[in-house]
Structure formats: structure tokens, C-alpha cells
Design goal:
Length: about 450
């Protein structure tokens, strides 16, 4: 007697289901991860803007003579703040799913506008001091001019820094110096009268200085930065929750699919077993047929299970081989990447600087001039401080990294960031990195000199 055997109901293509499920989990996860990375980069830019603004604001608390002596450094710091502001505006212009930074850019513009009004007034003080030094250094200075210069300096600086000096007394003193200047030679008379005119203009502008300083100190750029940082952190936390929820749904789907597959396999095994027969002869025949039937079912199930077991093992082997290969080749690949970056770009990308600064060639010259003046000996300082004061040495490479980013010196920025990370991890700096740092500084200084010479 023949028996009809029902075929087991299983997934015809389980691999397709797994691939689709993996794609539905992987693609959104990668998109969320990329968005989170962009949030991190944007947050780093905003934090850098806040640091630079605070440095400028803290410089206003210096005493006025000290502040005047550092006026060039303050002007350079203001240019750096402006370049960071332009970079933030460029990055956020066409970005999706990011907080609104228009209010931050507005208050940053107000801060820079007041600072641009503040710097020329302070620069006038430095100019007057320099002119007095030039006149006093003249070997042919007449004996009558020297006491007049001393009197002029006393009157000007008392008017600026003393609360007891009245404006009427100041201008009476100026009139007295002017009358005495008529007895001097023509050249000395013109020089002293020019100083008096410059001092009068300075004192009229100096009345606005306290107002400008107060406006700069009360600027709300820090409050806007704090709000944006909080919003960024909230959004990153929400992204984390979404990624966790997506992963949880994927895991639950896999578990349910596994349970359903097991039930279908058990149902198929039950359908393969023969129905009981009451007749003894049929029972014997059934028992004779049962053994090969069961064996065939086992054979039918075993290859499938073995095949499905082999796939993960093969995947694990291939993955482990890839990991080993990646670990063995990671160092040379990183070196090749750094080499390709440094070979393909100039030491200082002048065109990129001009583009960042809206074609302002004067700002480029100012940045490069200050870079040459302040950082030409940084490698020597770094080497000497490396064994004595690691904190100061780390500040040097951190400063180099920031300045390199501002002047678009990619090679210097890469090696400075590498050494800074090495020091943060308390690892020894290799000789290769030290040589690369020295070479990068030299190449950047040479490139800056070359550009400045062409502009003269």
C-alpha cells in the first residue's frame, strides 16, 4: 500500500530574507552614524569659535598699556575668529537636519564689528609711542625738542590713563607745547605738531573706547554657543535612541524568524512520520517502510542543517582572515595615506586661504606674517620642552595644529595632530614623527616667506 508524503513547508530562500533584513537595518544605521559624525564635527567648530572668542574677551581685562603692546596679536586672533565664523557658515549653508546657527552668526558679527572698531583706536596709541621713540632716537635731536617730547608724552598718557586729568587742562598743555614748538627747526616743528594732531584725534576717539569694551564684554555669543551645544547633545542622544530602537527591532525580528523556522521544521518532521495501521500485515509493511523513510528524512534535513551551519563558519573564517590582513596592512596604508596627502598638496594652500577669507589678500599676508614671526622656532622650543615640561610641549603642537588649519597647511596640521594624539595617549613620540614635524614646519615657513616675498 502506497503512502502519500506531504512536503515540508519551509522558507524557500532564507538567505534572501536575511539579506533584506540586514539591509533594512544597516542602511538607516549608516545614515544615522554619518549624521552623528557631522553633528560632532559641527560641534567641534562651534566649540573652537567659543574658545577663540573667550581668548579675545579675556584680553580686554589686561591693563591698558599691556593691551596696547599686544595689539597685533589681538588683531590676528580677531582674524582667526572671523575665519572660523566663515567656515561655520559654509558648512551649515546646505546641511540637512542641523540646528539653526543664524543667531550665532549674527552675534558673532556684532562681536567682530565692535572689535574692529576697538583695534584701530588701540593701534593709534602704539603709533604715537613709536613716533616718539623715532624722534628720541635721532642723533641730531635738538636740546629743545627732547623736553617737549617728554612733556607731550606725560600729557597724553595722563589724559588717557588718569581720572584726575580734565580735558581743558590737556588741551591747554597742548597749546603750550604748540607755542614752544615755534622756536624749533622746521622739520622738528612739523614732527611735533603732527604728534599733537595725532594725539588730539586719539583723545577724541579714546572716549568711545570704554563703550566699545563694555559692548564686547557683554556680547551674547557665549550664550548662543551654549544653546547650540545643548541642542546638538540632545539631537545626538535622540539619534542614539533611534539606533538602539532599530537594532532592537532587528533582533526581535531575527528571533521571531528563528522560532517560526523551528516550528516549520518540527511540523515537517511530523508530517513525514507514517499514520498508524490497525491491520497487522499493514503494520509490518509500514514498519518495513518506516526505517528508510525516516532515514531519508534525516538525510534530507541533515544536509540542509549542515549547509546552514557551514555558512556562518565560512563567514567567520573569511572575516577573521580579513581582520588579520587589515591589521597587518594598517600601518603601511596609513603611511601611504599621509604621504599621498602631503605630496598632493602644497605646504600652504594660498588659494584655499583666499577662498576662505573671501579673497582678502591683506588678511592672508597678516596671517602668514604672524605665523612666520611666532612659530618659526616652535620645533626647537618643542624639543627642549619635551623632556622638561610635557604640558607646554603639548600646547605648542596644539597651537601649531590650530594655526596650520587657519593657514591651510595640511601637512603641518596632520603631523601636529598625530603628535598631539600620541602625547594624550602617553606614548613615546617616534623619531619619524619628530623629523616630519621639523620638515613640515620648515616647509610651511619657507612657503610663507615665498608668498610674502612675491607680494612685496
Amino acid at each position: 500500500m502506497e503512502q502519500s508524503v506531504a512536503k515540508p513547508k519551509r522558507f524557500k530562500k532564507p538567505a534572501t530574507f536575511l539579506v533584506v533584513l540586514l539591509a533594512l537595518w544597516l542602511l538607516p544605521s549608516l545614515a544615522l552614524l554619518n549624521l552623528s559624525r557631522s553633528y560632532t564635527n559641527s560641534l567641534a567648530q562651534i566649540e573652537e569659535l567659543g574658545i577663540r572668542v573667550n581668548e579675545l574677551r579675556q584680553s580686554l581685562y589686561f591693563s591698558e598699556p599691556l593691551r596696547v603692546s599686544h595689539i597685533n596679536e589681538l588683531a590676528l586672533d580677531a582674524q582667526l575668529v572671523y575665519s572660523i565664523r566663515l567656515q561655520i557658515e559654509s558648512d551649515f549653508q546646505h546641511a540637512l537636519f542641523r540646528p539653526d546657527v543664524n543667531q550665532l552668526l549674527y552675534v558673532a558679527d556684532q562681536f567682530l564689528e565692535k572689535f574692529d572698531e576697538f583695534i584701530p583706536i588701540e593701534s593709534q596709541v602704539q603709533d604715537i609711542v613709536d613716533n616718539i621713540k623715532i624722534l628720541r632716537a635721532d642723533k641730531e635731536l635738538s636740546p629743545k625738542l627732547k623736553p617737549l617730547l617728554n612733556e607731550f608724552g606725560v600729557v597724553v598718557f595722563e589724559a588717557m590713563y588718569s581720572d584726575n586729568q580734565s580735558s581743558s587742562a590737556t588741551y591747554r598743555a597742548f597749546d603750550s607745547i604748540l607755542e614752544k614748538s615755534y622756536s624749533l627747526k622746521t622739520e622738528e616743528q612739523d614732527a611735533l605738531q603732527q604728534l599733537l594732531a595725532d594725539a588730539s584725534a586719539l583723545l577724541s576717539d579714546y572716549a568711545q573706547l570704554n563703550y566699545l569694551v563694555d559692548k564686547i564684554k557683554k556680547n551674547s555669543v557665549n550664550e548662543q554657543i551654549i544653546k547650540l551645544e545643548a541642542e546638538f547633545h540632545d539631537r545626538q542622544f535622540n539619534l542614539l535612541l533611534v539606533m538602539l530602537g532599530l537594532s532592537l527591532v532587528t533582533m526581535i525580528t531575527l528571533v521571531l524568524w528563528g522560532v517560526r523556522s523551528r516550528k516549520l521544521i518540527q511540523q515537517a518532521d511530523n508530517e513525514l512520520s507514517p499514520e498508524p495501521v490497525t491491520d497487522s500485515s499493514k503494520e509490518n509493511a509500514s514498519s518495513a517502510v518506516k526505517q528508510p523513510s525516516d532515514d531519508s528524512s534525516v538525510l534530507e534535513i541533515m544536509p540542509t542543517s549542515k549547509h546552514s551551519d557551514l555558512k556562518p563558519q565560512e563567514g567567520v573564517n573569511v572575516t577573521s582572515q580579513k581582520i588579520v590582513q587589515q591589521n597587518t596592512e594598517e600601518a603601511p596604508v596609513a603611511e601611504k595615506h599621509i604621504a599621498s596627502v602631503t605630496d598632493s598638496k602644497p605646504a600652504i594652500d594660498i588659494e584655499d586661504m583666499l577662498e576662505t577669507l573671501d579673497g582678502d589678500a591683506e588678511s592672508v599676508e597678516l596671517l602668514l606674517g604672524v605665523f612666520v614671526q611666532d612659530h618659526a622656532d616652535d620645533y626647537t622650543k618643542f624639543k627642549s620642552l619635551l623632556t622638561k615640561d610635557e604640558t607646554s610641549a603639548a600646547r605648542i603642537v596644539h597651537s601649531l595644529k590650530g594655526v596650520a588649519g587657519s593657514i591651510k597647511a595640511s601637512r603641518l596640521a596632520i603631523i601636529a595632530a598625530t603628535i598631539e594624539m600620541t602625547m594624550k595617549q602617553s606614548r613615546a613620540i617616534s623619531e619619524h614623527d619628530l623629523e616630519e614635524l621639523e620638515a613640515a614646519i620648515k616647509a610651511s615657513i619657507d612657503a610663507a616667506f615665498e608668498y610674502l616675498d612675491k607680494q612685496r
